[in-house]
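#onboarding

Welcome to the new folks! Below is a worked example of what a typical request in this channel looks like: someone posts a single protein sequence, and someone else replies with the predicted structure as tokens. Don't worry about understanding the tokens yet, we'll cover that in week two.

Example request:
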Amino acid sequence: MASSMRMSFILFFACSLFLQGTLGEVICETLPTNLCSFAIASSGKRCVLENFQNNDGKLEFTCKTSEVVVSTMAGHIETDKCVSACGADRSFVGISSDAFLAPQFTANLCSPACYQNCPNIVDLYFNMAAGEGK
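Example response:
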């Protein structure tokens, strides 16, 4: 009996450690640049890809926390499937409506694969369009 109780405790402890690692916070500054765009930090602020010139004069990228707050979806990192379905590009620097200039972008954004499955990207671009009166 004591042995099974000890084993249950060890199993519970191991599972607790595993869950803490998988349920960690999303912090923009710690994300790799290939996951930065279309991510939302645990604080609810959007992550944004920025570029800078390093000491050698080379252009590098970093992930930063923007001031744009999303009231839902905190701690969300968009899937590659959604980025592709919506015709978005993770290499965009900053949060910009430049994507609207691409002829197929709006069609991709409004497609069922994007519109019905990718609320983060849809929310971002619809709010930008509304803010710019498009």
